[in-house]
């Protein structure tokens, strides 16, 4: 799991490219962790990438809300130390979509590697 | 670990409100986010004051503050609303309601046939204007109730705003008669063709159904829909 993320982030860290993959990252994390809240997601990504990648708050919440509106995520609200906390988890459709998007992303990484580091030998 | 007091949470609530987050659904989430961030900062820098920590956390949202989050959230909620409308709309195309729909198409088409040829086009425009007039009347009549409903419990919810603004449906329907009024269309659409009349009947029927869904069905199920969208709606 860790290696998977490191790999993605090596390719995409601090570039515009990762923006398009933010949704996939969120879906993958939720698939692993079950349910998470917004702050937890930012911290988890930071920890997994040893601070290499920082998901900005201004990008995370819009992504979460969009996924929720698209029916991929479900919400759950729990009262935690005198405040309400909103947890996100995958819906059934979300689980299916996660598999598709991960496959797509891996395919993308493979093609990028081919482009960046082509194999010129004839055999 | 240092935890925020109830008063500090309250202060965060007014802080996000002051930064133009009007809706409770977004307020709770942002308050929790800021609170987590502040508590985390205190672990590493216990000397920081509440205000300092809050400012640091807020700055992470960038120069636009919560603006982007609000904008995108509104967009997502609109999408969600459209999905809800579509869900109820689809229902009309299944048995038994589809019989009613087909009946309505038939009645409108037959009535159009009986109208003298020269008046047909204007009649259709008139029907659209009549629908719009009725919808405007409903908006006006229910305005006070809806305004009260929206701020009930002292809290605003984005989806509720959409439900009681009827998804701005009037603006969309308004386009129909205005488009039909274009001279080119008026001169080219053959009003003696049965297929044209049937097509118009279908468009009119669809308009009636969508108006019915947004103005009657969805508001009547508002509490149920809001409860499903916002688990915290029932906690209050």
TrEMBL record, chain A:
<dbReference type="Pfam" id="PF03551">
    <property type="entry name" value="PadR"/>
</dbReference>
<dbReference type="InterPro" id="IPR036388">
    <property type="entry name" value="WH-like_DNA-bd_sf"/>
</dbReference>
<feature type="domain" description="Transcription regulator PadR N-terminal">
    <location>
        <begin position="26"/>
        <end position="97"/>
    </location>
</feature>
<dbReference type="GO" id="GO:0003677">
    <property type="term" value="F:DNA binding"/>
</dbReference>
<protein>
    <submittedName>
        <fullName>DNA-binding transcriptional regulator, PadR family</fullName>
    </submittedName>
</protein>
<dbReference type="InterPro" id="IPR005149">
    <property type="entry name" value="Tscrpt_reg_PadR_N"/>
</dbReference>
<dbReference type="InterPro" id="IPR052509">
    <property type="entry name" value="Metal_resp_DNA-bind_regulator"/>
</dbReference>
<dbReference type="InterPro" id="IPR036390">
    <property type="entry name" value="WH_DNA-bd_sf"/>
</dbReference>
<keyword id="KW-0238">DNA-binding</keyword>
UniProtKB/TrEMBL annotation, chain B:
<feature type="transmembrane region" description="Helical">
    <location>
        <begin position="98"/>
        <end position="117"/>
    </location>
</feature>
<keyword id="KW-1133">Transmembrane helix</keyword>
<protein>
    <recommendedName>
        <fullName>TIGR04222 domain-containing protein</fullName>
    </recommendedName>
</protein>
<feature type="transmembrane region" description="Helical">
    <location>
        <begin position="123"/>
        <end position="140"/>
    </location>
</feature>
<feature type="transmembrane region" description="Helical">
    <location>
        <begin position="194"/>
        <end position="218"/>
    </location>
</feature>
<keyword id="KW-0472">Membrane</keyword>
<keyword id="KW-0812">Transmembrane</keyword>
């Amino acid at each position: 799991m860790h290696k998977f993320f490191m790999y993605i982030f090596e390719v995409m860290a601090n570039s515009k490219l990762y923006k398009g993959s933010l949704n996939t990252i969120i879906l993958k994390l939720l698939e692993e962790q079950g349910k998470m809240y917004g702050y937890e997601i930012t911290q988890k990504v930071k920890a997994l990438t040893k601070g290499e990648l920082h998901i900005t708050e201004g990008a995370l919440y819009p992504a979460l809300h969009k996924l929720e509106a698209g029916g991929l995520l479900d919400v759950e609200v729990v009262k935690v130390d005198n405040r309400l906390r909103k947890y996100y988890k995958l819906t059934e459709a979300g689980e299916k979509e996660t598999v598709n998007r991960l496959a797509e992303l891996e395919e993308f990484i493979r093609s990028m590697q081919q482009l960046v580091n082509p194999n010129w030998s004839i055999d | 670990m240092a935890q925020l007091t109830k008063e500090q949470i309250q202060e965060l609530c007014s802080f996000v409100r002051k930064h133009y987050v009007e809706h409770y659904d977004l307020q709770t989430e942002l308050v929790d986010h800021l609170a987590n961030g502040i508590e985390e900062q205190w672990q590493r820098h216990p000397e920081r004051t509440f205000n300092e920590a809050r400012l640091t956390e807020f700055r992470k949202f960038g120069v636009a503050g919560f603006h982007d989050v609000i904008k995108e959230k509104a967009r997502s909620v609109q999408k969600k609303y459209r999905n809800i409308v579509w869900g109820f709309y689809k229902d009309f195309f299944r048995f038994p309601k589809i019989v009613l729909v087909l009946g309505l198409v038939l009645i409108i088409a037959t009535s159009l046939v009986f109208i003298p040829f020269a008046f047909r086009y204007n009649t259709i425009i008139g029907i659209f204007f009549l629908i719009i007039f009725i919808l405007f009347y409903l908006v006006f009549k229910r305005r006070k109730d809806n305004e009260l409903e929206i701020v009930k419990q002292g809290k605003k919810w984005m989806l509720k705003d959409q439900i009681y603004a009827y998804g701005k449906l009037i603006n969309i329907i308004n386009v129909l008669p205005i488009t039909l009024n274009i001279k080119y269309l008026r001169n080219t659409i053959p009003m003696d063709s049965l297929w044209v009349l049937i097509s118009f009947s279908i468009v009119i029927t669809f308009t009636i159904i969508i108006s019915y869904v947004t103005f009657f069905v969805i508001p009547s199920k508002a509490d149920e829909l809001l409860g499903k969208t916002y688990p915290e709606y029932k906690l209050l």
